[in-house]
Structure formats: C-alpha cells, structure tokens
C-alpha cells in the first residue's frame, strides 16, 4: 500500500504532499521509517489494541517531519501540526508528537501508547534491518563526533533497556519485547566494548 493512500485526511492532499517532501531525506528518519510506523500501527490494531486511528496516524505523519538531529525536532514537528491542522485534531496530534521526545505516555493514554510502541517497534526488527536502522541513526547525527555519539546513544539505549516495559500496549509487548531486548543488548555490548 502506498503512503499516499494511507493519508488519513481525504481533503488535505496538499499537506500530505508537503509532509512526504519533508520525510524524503537520507538517514533513519525517512520515508521508510514513516511507512514502518504506519505498518506497526496497523499491526497493533489488528492484534486488538484500541486507539483513535486518525489522530494517531496524523501524529505518525508529523512526529519526525522536522528532523535534523536537534533537541527540538519533536517540538518543531508538533508546532507544524498545530499550524497545519484544524482543532481538535491539531491539539491531539501535536500532543502525541511531543510525547515521542521521551516515549513515556501515561498508562491510560491509549493513543500515546500506540504511537510510542509503533515508533519504538524498530527495536524489534530483524537483525539486518536493525543494523540498517543503527547506521541510519548515525547518519542522522553525522554532525556529532564519534565519542559523543556513542556516549549519547548508550545513554538512550540504557534508559530503554532499564524500563520494566519497553512497550506500553499488551499487544506490542507480546509482539516485540523479546526481540527488542535482544537487539538492545547486542548494540549496547558493542557500545560498551
């Protein structure tokens, strides 16, 4: 299924096309990442996760629309959603985009949990795709020196690995947790070595 056919607003093809242009860039945060997040949202829904599909899909489209490896990428993406969408979708999409900065939705936030899980689902990818993801992340942060990148990446991964639950929905936990933890430990071993 093409990305254009997965756009959730039938009357805003202009915005969809702007977002597709924004995502069309090298590195991990590219059109493949957007496609995979949308795929994982569908996987969660098919597995029985309940969430409001339209605001979550919109947040997926916006969540890394602005991305240059800066600390405020999510905030700038959220502000774009606020400017481009009508209320109440604008407020909800922007809230969800901001949540992806830390991936710590409240347990009762079904939409936040679904988006967080779909975004972090890359951690459970098969080894070849996981390795491509790691290389893409490094490319996204090419402006950061190797030592600083390794230290920052290790800190992020150790935080994720220390969480009692990587994934917030039962469905994502069942589908992806074991493989994600294996990938995290493998990458961390390389970063510590």
Commentary on this structure:
- The protein has helices at residues 13-23, 31-46, 53-62, 73-84, 89-99, 110-120, 127-140, 146-162, 170-192.
- The chain is built from 9 helices and no strands.
- The relative contact order is 0.12.
- It has one domain: Hypothetical protein af1432, CATH 1.10.3210.
- The chain is globular and about 50 Å long.
- The protein has 193 residues and is mainly α.
- Helix 3 (53-62) packs across helix 6 (110-120).
Give the radius of gyration.
Answer: 16 Å
Total number of strands: 0
At the fourth level of CATH, the homologous superfamily is: Hypothetical protein af1432
Distance between the termini: 41 Å
Poorly predicted runs of 5 or more residues:
none
Elements, N to C (H/E) = HHHHHHHHH
Helix content: 55-70%
Architecture per CATH nomenclature, i.e. the level-2 architecture: Orthogonal Bundle
Oligomer: single chain
Largest sheet: none
What is the domain tally?
1
Here the CATH topology equals: Hypothetical protein af1432
Features:
single chain, 193 residues, mainly alpha, Hypothetical protein af1432
Question: Which SSEs are present, and which pair or pack?
Answer:
Layout: H1 13-23, H2 31-46, H3 53-62, H4 73-84, H5 89-99, H6 110-120, H7 127-140, H8 146-162, H9 170-192
Helix pairs in contact: 2-3, 2-6, 3-5, 3-6, 4-5, 8-9
């Amino acid at each position: 299924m093409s990305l254009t056919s997965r756009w959730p607003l039938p009357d805003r093809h202009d915005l969809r096309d702007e977002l597709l242009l924004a995502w069309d860039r090298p590195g991990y945060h590219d059109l493949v990442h957007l496609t995979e997040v949308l795929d994982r949202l569908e996987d969660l829904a098919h597995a029985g996760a309940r969430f409001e599909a339209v605001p979550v899909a919109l947040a997926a489209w916006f969540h890394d629309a602005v991305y240059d490896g800066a600390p405020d990428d999510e905030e700038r993406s959220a502000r774009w959603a606020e400017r481009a969408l009508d209320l109440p979708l604008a407020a909800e999409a922007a809230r969800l985009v901001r949540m992806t900065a830390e991936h710590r939705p409240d347990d009762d936030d079904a939409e936040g949990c679904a988006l967080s899980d779909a975004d972090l689902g890359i951690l459970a990818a098969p080894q070849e795709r996981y390795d491509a993801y790691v290389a893409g992340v490094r490319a996204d942060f090419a402006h950061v020196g190797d030592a600083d990148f390794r230290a920052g990446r290790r800190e992020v991964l150790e935080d994720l690995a220390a969480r009692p639950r990587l994934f917030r929905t039962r469905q994502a936990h069942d589908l992806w947790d074991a493989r994600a933890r294996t990938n995290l430990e493998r990458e961390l071993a390389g970063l510590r070595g």
